[in-house]
C-alpha cells in the first residue's frame, strides 16, 4: 500500500533564533568527520581516520548519525516549497564469514531519536510506535515483507520500508559504438566495499526528487537512477538530516560514511576527495583473510588445500571481472572511459618497445587509437605504489576538468582488475629534462626555445593558482613533468600530487610531497603546500632551464651542489649573474638571461613572504614590469622577514599589491 505523502515535509534551512528573528545555516560540508559534533547513537562512532561508522560487522545492531542542528521550515513566504541538494560517499563492507546485510539509508525526519528502531530489515528506521521519515535506502537484502525487488537496490521510502519507487543499484552511461550512441546501464554491487557516491536532489518547483549513484571517482552520471514526483510543501515544524544502518541475525556488514555535504536551494558543495579515506574496505579484509589462510595447510589435507586455493583463485577472477565491469562508464563531461582491450591493442600489449618512461608511479607507454589514429600516452600506475589510487583519483578529478594550452590534456582512464590506467594526448617531443641534461648537442634547446617554455609553464601555473574556479596547488613542478608538444610548447603535467581548495581559503594539505631540490624550506618543516611552495619549485625550474643543471647534484669534486645557492655564489664572486648560464648556449640576450636568473632566485627565496605571486612573475617575464631595484646576492641569503623589505623597499609594495593571496 502506497503511503500518503501530502502532509510530509522536509527540513531545509537551519535556523537559530536571535533578537532580530532567525540566523540561517543553509549548507554544511564534512570532508571526513574528525572533530565533528554529529548526534550519534547505537553502534555509531567516528573512527581515527574520520569515518562515520554506523555499524560494525556484528549481529542485530543499529547505528545512527545526524547533523546536530534541526532544520526549520519558518520561511513559507520565501520558500513555499524549498529545494535541496545533498551528496555523500559511503561504503558497505561485508563480513565474508556470513551473508551481507542489511543496509543503510539517508534520512530526513522530524526527530533524530531512533534508539528504539529495530535492526535487521527495518534498517534502524522503523519502531513499534512508528516513525516519520523520508529515506533513501541502500538495501542489500531482498525482504519479501517490504516487497523488495532484489538484494541490491536503491529505494525512496516514506514512513515505512515499502519503497514508493526503487531500482537495482547502478548508473547509466553513453556507450559509443561506431556512429551509434546508446544509453547503457551498469550495475554496481552496494556491498562490494568500494567507495560509492550518492546525490539526492529535490526541486521544489517541479516537486521532482532525483537520486543518482556512482563509483568514486566519477562525475555525476546523467540521467539519475531514480526520479519521483512528490509534494513536500506541507511543512513540519522541524526536521533532522542524517544516516541510519542496521545488521541482522545472520547478515552483517560495516556501513560507513566517508564524506557528506548539504545545501538549501542550490547544489551541495563538492566533496574534496583528497581529504577522504578512499581505500576500499574489502582490500583491508582481503589482507586479513590472507593471514588466516597461512595456517590452513597445517591442518587440512592436500586435497582440501588444493580445492580451497582453486576456489579462491576462481572467486578472485570473478570479482576482478565484476570490478572491471563496474568501471565501464563514460560521461558526456570530463575524461572518457576506455576499455582495457582498446588500450592494450593501442600499445601493442604494453610492449617495451613502446615504453616512453618509468618512475615510482609506474610506466608510460606510447600508443595509437584505432580507427582515429590519435596518438596517446598511457600511464600504467604500478600496483606497488602506495598512493596509486589517490594519484589516480586526483588526476581524473582535477586534470580531467582543466583546459589550458600549457597543461597536458587528460583524455580518459581505465580500471582493469587491480590496474589503474590514465590516457593523455601524446607529446611527441617528450619531457623537457631529456633536452636539458642530454650530452647530444644536436638535441640541445636554444635560448629562445627555453624562454618560450618558461613563459608557457608560468602561464599554466597562473591558470592553476588564479584563473580557474578553484585554487590548484600542483606540488610537483619540475622539468621532468614539463612535456613538449610538436611546436615545442611547454605543458605542465602529472597532477597526481595536486590538491585544490577555494579561493581566499587556506590549503589544508599537511603531507610533504614533491621532489628534492624543488621543495621549499617551509614545506619540509611544516608540510603545508601553498601557492608560495609552488612558486619556489617554479624558481628552481627556471634556474634549471637557464643553467642546464639539476636543482641538486654533485660538482666536479663530488660535493653536493644546490643550484639556487650555486647561482647566488657565482653572482657574488664574479659580479655577473649571467656567468651562471648554461655554457653550451652560444647566443642569448644578456638582459633576458639576467632577468630569468634573478627571477629564479627571487621565486626560490628562502622566505615565502619574499617570493612574488605567479601573476607578478608573468608580468616580469612579459616585460610589463621591471624587477624590483635593490636586489643583490646578499638579498637571497636573508632569513629574517623584517630584513626583506628593508633591503629592497620597492619589493614590499610590488609583492603585497600584485602577488595575490598565498
From TrEMBL:
<keyword id="KW-0408">Iron</keyword>
<keyword id="KW-0418">Kinase</keyword>
<keyword id="KW-1133">Transmembrane helix</keyword>
<comment type="similarity">
    <text>In the C-terminal section; belongs to the protein kinase superfamily. Ser/Thr protein kinase family.</text>
</comment>
<feature type="signal peptide">
    <location>
        <begin position="1"/>
        <end position="21"/>
    </location>
</feature>
<dbReference type="InterPro" id="IPR013320">
    <property type="entry name" value="ConA-like_dom_sf"/>
</dbReference>
<dbReference type="InterPro" id="IPR008271">
    <property type="entry name" value="Ser/Thr_kinase_AS"/>
</dbReference>
<dbReference type="GO" id="GO:0004674">
    <property type="term" value="F:protein serine/threonine kinase activity"/>
</dbReference>
<comment type="similarity">
    <text>In the N-terminal section; belongs to the leguminous lectin family.</text>
</comment>
<dbReference type="InterPro" id="IPR017441">
    <property type="entry name" value="Protein_kinase_ATP_BS"/>
</dbReference>
<dbReference type="InterPro" id="IPR000719">
    <property type="entry name" value="Prot_kinase_dom"/>
</dbReference>
<dbReference type="GO" id="GO:0005524">
    <property type="term" value="F:ATP binding"/>
</dbReference>
<dbReference type="InterPro" id="IPR050528">
    <property type="entry name" value="L-type_Lectin-RKs"/>
</dbReference>
<keyword id="KW-0479">Metal-binding</keyword>
<dbReference type="InterPro" id="IPR022407">
    <property type="entry name" value="OxRdtase_Mopterin_BS"/>
</dbReference>
<dbReference type="GO" id="GO:0030246">
    <property type="term" value="F:carbohydrate binding"/>
</dbReference>
<feature type="domain" description="Protein kinase">
    <location>
        <begin position="350"/>
        <end position="628"/>
    </location>
</feature>
<dbReference type="GO" id="GO:0005886">
    <property type="term" value="C:plasma membrane"/>
</dbReference>
<dbReference type="GO" id="GO:0046872">
    <property type="term" value="F:metal ion binding"/>
</dbReference>
<keyword id="KW-1003">Cell membrane</keyword>
<dbReference type="GO" id="GO:0043546">
    <property type="term" value="F:molybdopterin cofactor binding"/>
</dbReference>
<keyword id="KW-0500">Molybdenum</keyword>
<keyword id="KW-0067">ATP-binding</keyword>
<feature type="binding site">
    <location>
        <position position="379"/>
    </location>
    <ligand>
        <name>ATP</name>
    </ligand>
</feature>
<dbReference type="Pfam" id="PF00139">
    <property type="entry name" value="Lectin_legB"/>
</dbReference>
<keyword id="KW-0472">Membrane</keyword>
<dbReference type="InterPro" id="IPR011009">
    <property type="entry name" value="Kinase-like_dom_sf"/>
</dbReference>
<keyword id="KW-0547">Nucleotide-binding</keyword>
<dbReference type="GO" id="GO:0016491">
    <property type="term" value="F:oxidoreductase activity"/>
</dbReference>
<keyword id="KW-0723">Serine/threonine-protein kinase</keyword>
<keyword id="KW-0732">Signal</keyword>
<dbReference type="InterPro" id="IPR001220">
    <property type="entry name" value="Legume_lectin_dom"/>
</dbReference>
<keyword id="KW-0430">Lectin</keyword>
<protein>
    <recommendedName>
        <fullName>Protein kinase domain-containing protein</fullName>
    </recommendedName>
</protein>
<keyword id="KW-0808">Transferase</keyword>
<keyword id="KW-0812">Transmembrane</keyword>
<keyword id="KW-0560">Oxidoreductase</keyword>
<dbReference type="Pfam" id="PF00069">
    <property type="entry name" value="Pkinase"/>
</dbReference>
Amino acid at each position: 500500500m502506497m503511503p500518503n505523502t501530502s502532509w510530509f515535509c522536509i527540513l531545509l534551512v537551519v535556523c537559530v533564533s536571535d533578537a532580530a528573528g532567525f540566523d540561517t545555516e543553509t549548507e554544511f560540508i564534512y570532508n571526513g568527520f574528525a572533530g565533528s559534533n554529529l548526534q550519534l547513537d547505537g553502534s555509531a562512532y567516528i573512527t581515527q581516520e574520520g569515518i562515520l561508522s554506523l555499524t560494525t560487522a556484528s549481529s542485530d545492531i543499529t547505528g545512527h548519525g545526524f547533523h546536530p542542528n534541526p532544520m526549520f521550515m519558518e520561511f513559507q513566504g520565501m520558500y513555499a516549497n524549498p529545494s535541496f541538494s545533498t551528496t555523500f560517499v559511503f561504503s558497505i563492507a561485508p563480513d565474508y564469514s556470513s551473508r551481507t546485510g542489511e543496509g543503510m539509508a539517508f534520512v530526513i525526519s522530524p526527530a533524530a531519536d531512533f534508539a528504539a528502531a529495530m535492526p535487521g530489515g527495518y534498517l534502524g528506521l522503523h519502531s513499534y510506535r512508528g516513525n516519520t521519515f523520508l529515506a533513501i535506502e541502500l538495501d542489500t537484502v531482498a525482504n519479501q515483507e517490504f516487497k523488495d525487488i532484489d538484494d541490491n537496490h536503491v529505494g525512496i521510502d516514506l514512513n515505512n520500508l515499502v519503497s514508493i519507487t526503487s531500482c537495482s543499484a547502478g548508473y547509466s552511461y553513453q556507450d559509443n559504438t561506431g556512429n551509434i550512441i546508446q544509453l547503457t546501464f551498469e550495475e554496481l554491487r552496494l556491498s562490494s566495499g568500494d567507495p560509492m557516491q550518492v546525490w539526492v536532489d529535490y526541486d521544489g518547483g517541479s516537486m521532482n526528487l532525483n537520486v543518482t549513484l556512482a563509483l568514486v571517482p566519477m562525475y555525476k552520471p546523467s540521467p539519475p537512477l531514480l526520479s519521483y514526483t512528490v509534494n513536500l510543501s506541507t511543512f513540519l515544524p522541524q526536521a533532522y538530516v542524517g544516516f541510519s544502518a542496521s545488521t541482522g541475525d545472520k547478515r552483517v556488514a560495516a556501513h560507513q560514511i566517508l564524506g557528506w555535504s548539504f545545501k538549501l536551494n542550490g547544489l551541495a558543495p563538492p566533496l574534496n576527495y583528497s581529504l577522504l579515506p578512499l581505500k576500499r574496505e574489502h582490500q583491508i579484509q582481503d589482507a586479513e583473510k590472507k593471514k588466516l589462510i597461512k595456517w590452513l595447510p597445517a591442518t587440512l589435507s592436500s586435497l582440501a588445500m588444493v580445492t580451497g586455493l582453486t576456489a579462491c583463485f576462481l572467486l578472485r577472477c570473478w570479482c576482478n571481472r565484476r570490478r572491471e565491469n563496474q568501471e565501464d562508464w563514460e560521461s558526456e563531461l570530463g575524461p572518457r572511459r576506455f576499455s582495457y582491450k582498446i588500450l592494450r591493442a593501442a600499445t601493442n600489449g604494453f610492449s617495451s618497445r613502446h615504453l616512453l618512461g618509468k618512475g615510482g608511479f609506474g610506466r608510460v607507454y606510447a600508443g595509437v587509437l584505432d580507427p582515429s589514429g590519435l596518438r596517446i600516452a598511457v600511464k600504467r600506475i604500478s600496483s606497488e605504489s602506495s598512493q596509486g589510487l589517490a594519484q589516480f583519483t586526483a588526476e581524473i578529478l582535477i586534470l580531467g576538468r582543466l583546459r589550458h594550452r600549457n597543461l597536458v590534456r587528460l583524455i580518459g582512464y581505465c580500471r582493469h582488475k587491480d590496474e589503474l590506467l590514465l590516457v593523455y594526448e601524446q607529446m611527441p617531443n617528450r619531457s623537457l629534462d631529456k633536452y636539458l641534461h642530454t650530452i647530444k648537442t644536436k638535441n640541445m634547446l636554444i635560448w629562445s626555445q627555453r624562454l618560450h617554455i618558461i613563459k608557457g609553464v608560468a602561464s599554466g601555473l597562473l591558470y592553476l593558482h588564479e584563473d580557474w574556479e578553484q585554487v590548484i596547488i600542483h606540488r610537483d613542478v619540475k622539468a621532468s613533468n614539463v612535456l613538449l608538444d610538436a611546436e615545442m610548447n611547454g605543458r605542465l603535467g602529472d597532477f597526481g600530487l595536486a590538491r585544490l581548495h577555494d579561493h581566499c581559503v587556506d590549503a589544508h594539505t599537511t603531507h610533504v610531497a614533491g621532489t628534492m631540490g624543488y621543495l621549499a624550506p617551509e614545506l619540509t618543516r611544516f608540510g603545508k603546500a601553498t601557492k608560495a611552495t609552488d612558486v619556489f619549485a617554479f624558481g628552481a625550474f627556471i634556474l634549471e632551464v637557464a643553467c642546464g643543471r639539476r636543482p641538486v647534484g654533485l660538482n666536479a669534486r663530488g660535493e653536493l651542489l644546490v643550484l639556487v645557492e650555486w647561482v647566488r655564489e657565482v653572482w657574488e664572486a664574479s659580479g655577473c649573474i649571467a656567468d651562471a648560464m648554461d655554457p653550451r648556449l652560444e647566443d642569448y640576450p644578456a638582459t633576458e638571461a639576467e632577468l630569468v636568473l634573478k627571477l629564479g632566485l627571487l621565486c626560490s627565496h628562502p622566505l615565502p613572504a619574499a617570493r612574488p605571486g605567479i601573476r607578478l612573475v608573468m608580468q616580469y617575464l612579459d616585460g610589463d614590469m621591471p624587477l624590483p631595484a635593490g636586489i643583490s646576492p646578499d638579498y637571497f641569503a636573508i632569513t629574517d622577514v623584517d630584513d626583506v623589505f628593508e633591503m629592497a623597499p620597492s619589493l614590499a609594495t610590488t609583492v603585497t599589491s600584485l602577488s595575490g593571496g598565498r
